[in-house]
Specification:
mainly alpha
Length: 129
């Protein structure tokens, strides 16, 4: 049984690369704020190995693309498509198509199974009882 003490405290993400990214994302949109809060919660939560294994797959390691990384790709594709984001309909036709294409390319790259393999491997390396 693991004892929770100062010696095995979970370090803060403040003053780390993750903390810096989260700080840079402040005040963009309430939805981004919720994402930041979720990331911070996951980073500071005292997890079991089973939870760590599941979260690793859920965040970025699902072989069938049912993870947060893929969901973000789908969201970006949705935000950059004039059919699903009316704000883009005020752009010229070429700008709409270029914006849409870049969003679709991002989704394609974030959906690449090779990108997810590292998180899947990390999850598989965690042995739970």
């Amino acid at each position: 049984m693991t004892r929770h003490s100062e010696a095995n405290a979970i370090p803060s993400v403040d003053d780390t690369e993750l903390g810096d990214v989260l700080a840079d994302l402040d005040h963009i949109h309430p939805g981004i704020g919720l994402i930041r809060d979720g990331i911070r919660l996951l980073a500071h939560d005292r997890l079991t190995t089973a939870q760590t294994q599941l979260l690793t797959v859920a965040l970025a390691g699902s072989p069938d693309g049912t993870d947060v990384l893929t969901a973000i790709g789908y969201l970006v594709a949705r935000l950059t498509h004039p059919d699903t984001n009316p704000a883009l309909r005020n752009l010229g036709h070429d700008a709409q198509k270029h914006t849409q294409r870049h969003g679709e390319n991002l989704l394609h790259h974030l959906s690449d199974p090779h990108l997810h393999q590292h998180a899947s491997n990390a999850s598989g390396a965690i042995h739970t009882d």
